[in-house]
Amino acid sequence: MTILDELKWRGAINQQTDEAGLTELVKEKAVGLYVGIDPTGDSMHIGHLIPFMILKRFQLAGHRPYIIIGGGTGSIGDPSGKKSERVLQSMEQVHHNEAAITAQMERLFGQDGSFKIVNNYDWLSKISLLDFLRDYGKLFNVNNMLAKEVVASRLEVGISFTEFTYQILQSVDFLHLFQKEDVQLQVGGADQWGNITAGIDLIHKIEGNEAKAYGLTIPLMLKADGTKFGKTAGGAVWLDAEKTTPYEFYQFWLNQDDRDVVKYLKYFTFLTEDEINDLAKQVETHPEKREAQRRLAQEVTAFVHGDEAVTEAENISKALFSGDVAELSVSEIEQGFKNMPSVDITAEKRNIVEWLVDVTSIEPSRRQAREDVNNGAIRINGEKVTDVEAEIDPSNHFDGKFVIVRRGKKRYFLARVK
């Protein structure tokens, strides 16, 4: 099975410019290929991850992946998928984003020298306006550019000349890597088809029609309910652990619909066909066990954040479900309680009834607090407290940084010692 056969089985190919030619190429040699990403933010989200999973599969199959960090194109703005003009970022912000995304790529692709990160600012910034117009602009037909979906979709609301030229700059990227690094394949999302084919056309015009350059796009990822993949009620799911904690990341994958989980196993994990088929049977026969979702969460979280993050996420999940939170680490508490009700407190010792009412406002009144304590409805740091004369000492657990309260079966509160 070639890498292309595997991608077909995984449902990861949308369009190819020359399927027969690319099939022969991957059999003949270790192919140079690239995916580009503009540094429009300081982290990728899981939507960005989709084409880079394809790049990673090529890497594991022995091919030569290149990643373009678009320091040049990112300062211009890609009109793809946008209904209005992008707001230009300062170059300082662009450079900050470049560094952050580069660090994420190095975690995903390793540091063994089997892939290369390049920045298109290094060559695009050296092209003068006159050279751009004479050497490249002359080779692009405006009528053809207007017909590209990425531009045509913006004609009613308008598109600036700056964003209109984006496809030329991306084409120059492909030409540059073709000439300097023997890169023959560009991979991108379905919305990049016009830009990719424009790059191949440019290579053919300069290097001749026999030049072997190819394009491959991946399908638009939609959930079973027809909505766009990767969005939650809280917004995007980020690869940056500060924006989306590894626990939240793990939970996102764990909570996937039975109708989607097998597709996501094919797209986002490196499990074999037999392993995924076994998990698919589990979904059919024992969906309540959610084995496929759990394996999906483990695999993707390990790929993005490492094995230790999986262990932490599972510790948090187990502790919150059982109520046994006493063994959680400070880091695990920060992750697991990030979006739960919280209050700042001092390290002062107080009677439990006073503390629940006057210090934290967890209970609405002292009468209610006494009743809940007497009924065993209050747990402090995982321990049931039934004595209304008990004392809360914030320094007793979690390095004196937190007090965890559970009221009833599921309502958690976090008190942070300031």
TrEMBL record:
<dbReference type="GO" id="GO:0005829">
    <property type="term" value="C:cytosol"/>
</dbReference>
<feature type="binding site">
    <location>
        <position position="231"/>
    </location>
    <ligand>
        <name>ATP</name>
    </ligand>
</feature>
<dbReference type="Pfam" id="PF00579">
    <property type="entry name" value="tRNA-synt_1b"/>
</dbReference>
<comment type="function">
    <text>Catalyzes the attachment of tyrosine to tRNA(Tyr) in a two-step reaction: tyrosine is first activated by ATP to form Tyr-AMP and then transferred to the acceptor end of tRNA(Tyr).</text>
</comment>
<feature type="binding site">
    <location>
        <position position="170"/>
    </location>
    <ligand>
        <name>L-tyrosine</name>
    </ligand>
</feature>
<comment type="similarity">
    <text>Belongs to the class-I aminoacyl-tRNA synthetase family. TyrS type 1 subfamily.</text>
</comment>
<protein>
    <recommendedName>
        <fullName>Tyrosine--tRNA ligase</fullName>
        <ecNumber>6.1.1.1</ecNumber>
    </recommendedName>
</protein>
<dbReference type="GO" id="GO:0004831">
    <property type="term" value="F:tyrosine-tRNA ligase activity"/>
</dbReference>
<dbReference type="InterPro" id="IPR054608">
    <property type="entry name" value="SYY-like_C"/>
</dbReference>
<dbReference type="GO" id="GO:0003723">
    <property type="term" value="F:RNA binding"/>
</dbReference>
<keyword id="KW-0067">ATP-binding</keyword>
<dbReference type="InterPro" id="IPR024107">
    <property type="entry name" value="Tyr-tRNA-ligase_bac_1"/>
</dbReference>
<keyword id="KW-0963">Cytoplasm</keyword>
<dbReference type="InterPro" id="IPR002307">
    <property type="entry name" value="Tyr-tRNA-ligase"/>
</dbReference>
<comment type="subunit">
    <text>Homodimer.</text>
</comment>
<keyword id="KW-0030">Aminoacyl-tRNA synthetase</keyword>
<dbReference type="GO" id="GO:0005524">
    <property type="term" value="F:ATP binding"/>
</dbReference>
<keyword id="KW-0547">Nucleotide-binding</keyword>
<dbReference type="InterPro" id="IPR014729">
    <property type="entry name" value="Rossmann-like_a/b/a_fold"/>
</dbReference>
<dbReference type="InterPro" id="IPR036986">
    <property type="entry name" value="S4_RNA-bd_sf"/>
</dbReference>
<feature type="binding site">
    <location>
        <position position="166"/>
    </location>
    <ligand>
        <name>L-tyrosine</name>
    </ligand>
</feature>
<feature type="binding site">
    <location>
        <position position="34"/>
    </location>
    <ligand>
        <name>L-tyrosine</name>
    </ligand>
</feature>
<keyword id="KW-0648">Protein biosynthesis</keyword>
<keyword id="KW-0694">RNA-binding</keyword>
<feature type="short sequence motif" description="'HIGH' region">
    <location>
        <begin position="39"/>
        <end position="48"/>
    </location>
</feature>
<dbReference type="InterPro" id="IPR002305">
    <property type="entry name" value="aa-tRNA-synth_Ic"/>
</dbReference>
<feature type="domain" description="RNA-binding S4">
    <location>
        <begin position="355"/>
        <end position="413"/>
    </location>
</feature>
<dbReference type="InterPro" id="IPR002942">
    <property type="entry name" value="S4_RNA-bd"/>
</dbReference>
<dbReference type="InterPro" id="IPR001412">
    <property type="entry name" value="aa-tRNA-synth_I_CS"/>
</dbReference>
<keyword id="KW-0436">Ligase</keyword>
<dbReference type="Pfam" id="PF22421">
    <property type="entry name" value="SYY_C-terminal"/>
</dbReference>
<dbReference type="InterPro" id="IPR024088">
    <property type="entry name" value="Tyr-tRNA-ligase_bac-type"/>
</dbReference>
<dbReference type="GO" id="GO:0006437">
    <property type="term" value="P:tyrosyl-tRNA aminoacylation"/>
</dbReference>
<feature type="short sequence motif" description="'KMSKS' region">
    <location>
        <begin position="228"/>
        <end position="232"/>
    </location>
</feature>
